[in-house]
Amino acid sequence: MKILHIVAYILLIIGGLNWLLVGAFDWNLVTTIFDEGSGLTRLVYVLVGLSAIVGLVTHKASCKNCDKGMQGGM
Fold first, then answer.
1. b/e for 30-39, b at 16 or more Cβ within 10 A?
2. Which of 18, 27, 74 has the alpha carbon at shortest distance from 51?
3. Which residues, given as ranges, of the chain have pLDDT below 70?
4. DSSP states of 18-54 as a string?
5. CA–CA separation, 72 vs 43, rounded Å?
6. In sequence order, which residues have a C-beta less than 8 Å from that of residue 7 and are 6 or more positions away?
7. How far, in Å, CA of 60 to CA of 57, rounded?
8. Is the distance from CB of 47 to CB of 7 less than 8 angstroms?
9. Burial (CB count within 10 angstroms: exposed 0-12, middle 13-18, buried 19+), residue 8
10. Cα(1)–Cα(68) distance, integer angstroms
11. Which backbone phi and psi does 24 adopt, to 5 degrees?
12. Lower CB density within 10 Å: C or N end of the chain?
């Protein structure tokens, strides 16, 4: 499960950085690398989306800040 968490985290970072580039500079790194509409581009988007689902499902169990004993809030 730890490997899945690490891979999902890395893909979420890649997806987040790509959205930053799209929003700030109108430049999509994924389509620049793999060409727009290619199978690899779609695969990257699907993997990033699946990583978001894994993150949603497993976050509370792996997040130190969401622990029941959290003191002081954020």
1. bbeebeeeee
2. 18
3. 67-74
4. HHHHHHHHS--HHHHHH-TT-HHHHHHHHHHHHHHHH
5. 41
6. 51
7. 8
8. no
9. buried
10. 21
11. -85, -35
12. C
Amino acid found at 7? V
Cβ count within 10 A of residue 62: 13
Please give the structure tokens belonging to residue 55: 């993150």
Q: How far apart, in whole angstroms, are the C-alpha atoms of residue 9 and residue 23?
A: 21
Token pair belonging to 45: 């988007």
Query: What Cα–Cα distance (Å) separates residue 61 from each residue in 7, 9, 14, 43, 64?
Result: 16, 14, 22, 27, 8
pLDDT computed for residue 58 by the predictor: 85
User: What does the alpha-carbon distance between residue 17 and residue 26 come to, in Å, rounded to a whole number?
Assistant: 12
